[in-house]
Amino acid sequence: MLNKPVVYKKLLGTAILAAVFTSCVTGQLGQNVSGQYRQGMVVCAYPDAAQAGLDALKKGGNAVDAAVAVHFALAVTHPQAGNIGGGGFMVYRSASGETNTLDFREKAPASARVDMYLDSSGNIKPDMSLYTHYASGVPGSVDGMYTAHKKYGKLKWADLVQPAVTLAENGFKMTKRLANDINRNRQEFIKLNPGKGYLVNAQDWKEGDVLVQADLGKTLELIRDKGRDGFYTGQTADLITAEVSDGKPIMTREDLRNYHSVWRKALVGNYKSYKVITMPPPSSGGVALLQLLKSVEKYPLHSWGFNKDSTVQVMVEAERRVYADRSKYLGDPDFFKVPVDSLLNAAYITKRMANFSWAAATPSTSIQPGTFVGYESDQTTHYSIVDREGNAVSITTTLNDTFGSHIFVKGAGFLLNNEMDDFSSKPGVPNMYGLVGGKANSIQPGKRMLSSMTPTILEKDGKLFMVVGTPGGATIITSVFQTILNVVEFDKSMQGAVSAKRFHHQWLPDQVDLEPEALDSTVVEKLSRKGYKFSKRGAIGRVDGILKTQWGYYEGGADPRGDDTKLGF
Ligand code: DON
To answer: Which residue positions does the secretion signal occupy (predicted)?
Structure first.
């Protein structure tokens, strides 16, 4: 009784202090001093596309609405990977915790054959799966956006596509990186699109030049007005089938009309107290990410520290084993029974890690894909979005190579993917990312090629924690793996985790790829003496992530390796 006034006074004091503190650190729109936001956030590969997403959120759109706006805006402003001629994956988590994934990966056309890239002696015909009309899978992006919007969208479809139409028809200012990327590919554009000037300028492009894409604008208008029919039927379909032919049709109207994206149950696992919600096959990304996290979970990474020799050693040994499994067991689940449960079985993972030695690197030649008891038989782009209610979307989308096949659909103004190279054209022969595969990922008509894309969402204590993903071919999985550990084990902020230097091992070739200055020279020295081989390379990945802090703010991480941009409100 006597104490009550004191308690009240204390509480009142705390409340006043809290209110003063909050108003000091919080701007009018809910941004605090450290660039964190309350109401929504978009992190993606190009500033104008991030703006299109933010505008959709501010108009009351949800994360899926913003994703549609970002996707089409990236198809205009980030032609290296943003696309309508490619495909991708979406991982979704609603504010109330419902999870879902959408597979809008490209499919092999009906004319595809298992040996279509082999000559009469059974050797791979160089570049046929990369820079020819045979390189493209049936695009999935437009159907994917349309399907996602139909299920979850709130704002009008046309209003979400319009910003992309405007960017294409009125033009937008190019960043230095975009101008340079296009200039570097000028000869390929000219060679593969004779007589057509798409993305080609009389002189080299420079920063600040305005890029107008009139034909792409017209195609986007059709998509805006007719939805998926604006792409898969009518004029756009005619232009695609005319382009993707070789005297005889390679991709037909039926291929286009029959394309449908697929809702797939999210792949869910745990790392310590975090729930990891990620993409199931036909991406290998989710399975591999969960295998990697489980492989290192029991080691004291936190006390060893970020990129210390023991930390790197255990991560590399896990990566070696997981990529070996990927080569044999992962493929399109509609065509091949992927043993997901066996690959994620705790006892199997413990057994896989049991034979590595602290004294010396395990040579990759001594590692084969595992066996289980009872087994039943430089470009992509990622965007992360959260809205006011707390719905989250994690999307990775691709044309495969930078600018895909470099072949435009003439008259429609967009680039075709070269995703067919993600199939295993010949068992054991590496694709453009050095990845090998076999039967699970062989070419079949209508089949989806295996992917490494790993759009992922993490929950902590039943609440949204992180939205993350990246481009980077084979390095996608290890980049997402490292970014998650950077936050949950090494206490980095979202931006710190994204900016941190990366390393990568993929079983074959047997080497650890290193970004410049990724590891201290002493760490490299110690591990080299144990037999690890290191190979320097340029940037690995472009991770874009959002973290929900314990104080309820969204904090973004936009990769400084690209033009990636974070915007919130
Ligand atoms: O789906 C895949 O795994 C590849 N097509 C991704 C390609 C990619 O990330 C290229 N980016 N740098």
So the answer is: 1-18
Is any ligand 1 atom within 6 A of the Cβ of residue 472?
yes
Per the annotation, does 428 bind a ligand?
no
In a domain, 153, yes or no: no
One-letter amino acid of 267 = L
Q: According to the model, what pLDDT value does residue 372 have?
A: 72
- Ligand 1 pocket member 380 (CB < 6 A): yes
| pLDDT at position 371 | 82
CA pair distance 381, 167, nearest whole angstrom: 19
E strand map for 307-462: 380-386, 392-398, 408-409, 414-415, 456-460
DSSP 8-state assignment for residue 491: -
CA of 406 to the centre of ligand 1 (A): 15
Residue 231 belongs to a domain: no
pLDDT band at 196 (very low <50, low <70, confident <90, very high): confident
CA 137 – ligand 1 centroid, Å: 14
Distance 397 CA to ligand 1 centre (A): 8
Strand order in the sheet with 565-568: 262-264, 99-104, 87-93, 392-398, 380-386, 41-44, 565-568
Q: Which two tokens stand for residue 422?
A: 């993600």
Mean pLDDT confidence for 278-288: 98
Helix spans in 330-397 (H): 340-343, 346-354
First to last CA, the chain: 46
Q: Is residue 267 part of a domain?
A: yes
Residue 156 lies in a domain: no
Is there a binding annotation on residue 451?
Answer: yes
| Residue 135 to residue 132: CA distance in whole angstroms | 5
Compute how many other C-beta atoms are within 10 angstroms of the C-beta atom of residue 195. Answer: 6
Report the 3 state secondary structure along 232-273: HCHHHHHHHHHHCEECEECCCHHHHHCCCCEEECCEEEEECC
Locate 313 and state its tokens: 């050693």
**CB 265: neighbour CB atoms within 10 A?**
9
Residue 469 Cβ < 6 Å to ligand 1: no
User: In terms of residues, how long is the chain?
Assistant: 569
Q: Which amino acid is at 105?
A: R
- Flag whether the pTM goes above 0.85: yes
Ligand 1 centre to CA of 83 (Å) is: 13
Domain housing 433 = 1-136+262-569
In this predicted model, what pLDDT tens digit does every residue of 113-128 receive, in sequence order? 999 999 999 999 999 9
Structurally, the chain folds into a number of domains equal to 1
Place of tokens 């096949």: 405
Query: Ligand 1: which residue has its CA nearest to atom 11?
Result: 379
Name the more confident of 262 and 22: 262
Place of tokens 């409340």: 15
Whether the pLDDT of residue 18 is over 90: the answer is no
Residue 550: how many CB atoms within 10 A of its CB?
10
The answer to whether residue 380 is catalytic is: yes
Question: 14: domain CATH number?
Answer: 3.60.20.40
486 lines ligand 1 (CB under 6 A): no
